[in-house]
């Protein structure tokens, strides 16, 4: 038989483990730049239709770590604060958020989405939104970073 105090220690340990796993409030914040970049660059390579406009092929985007950091942070902010907009509740825009992270490019565009499961699905969703599609297909943008938090996706496009 086990000593009585060993049983109490074991029960306390098991209770701690079960409680800590029940209260796991971690948020899955992920840099998804590589996988989203592949999907967007497929569109950019072939061209597509954005609304009624034919968009010709444009050069591929490249990854930018500051834009990725900005995208992950903003996806996290929208997820944890329960809002969904290109402009934060404090009034900051995508270019202001990117500049605050140290990005020095002249242009920043942003595409956001929620409730998609994969990079291919979210890019298809953006393609089906005329404004988001035109942003992804714009030759103005040459680099990109993307992030996901919970079910919120953000891609920041820059030059």
UniProtKB/TrEMBL annotation:
<dbReference type="InterPro" id="IPR014044">
    <property type="entry name" value="CAP_dom"/>
</dbReference>
<keyword id="KW-0732">Signal</keyword>
<dbReference type="InterPro" id="IPR035940">
    <property type="entry name" value="CAP_sf"/>
</dbReference>
<feature type="signal peptide">
    <location>
        <begin position="1"/>
        <end position="23"/>
    </location>
</feature>
<dbReference type="Pfam" id="PF00188">
    <property type="entry name" value="CAP"/>
</dbReference>
<feature type="domain" description="SCP">
    <location>
        <begin position="39"/>
        <end position="149"/>
    </location>
</feature>
<protein>
    <submittedName>
        <fullName>CAP domain-containing protein</fullName>
    </submittedName>
</protein>
């Amino acid at each position: 038989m086990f000593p009585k105090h060993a049983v109490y220690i074991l029960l306390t340990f098991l209770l701690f483990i079960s409680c800590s796993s029940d209260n796991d409030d971690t948020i899955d914040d992920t840099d998804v730049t590589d996988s989203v970049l592949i999907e967007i660059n497929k569109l950019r390579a072939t061209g597509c239709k954005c609304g009624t406009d034919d968009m010709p092929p444009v050069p591929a985007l490249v990854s930018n770590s500051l834009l990725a950091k900005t995208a992950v942070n903003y996806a996290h902010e929208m997820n944890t604060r329960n809002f969904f907009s290109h402009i934060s509740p404090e009034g900051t825009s995508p270019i202001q958020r990117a500049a605050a992270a140290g990005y020095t490019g002249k242009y920043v565009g942003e595409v956001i989405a929620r409730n998609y499961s994969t990079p291919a699905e979210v890019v298809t969703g953006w393609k089906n939104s005329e404004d988001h599609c035109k942003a992804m297909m714009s030759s103005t943008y040459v680099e990109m970073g993307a992030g996901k938090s919970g079910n919120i996706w953000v891609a920041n496009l820059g030059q």
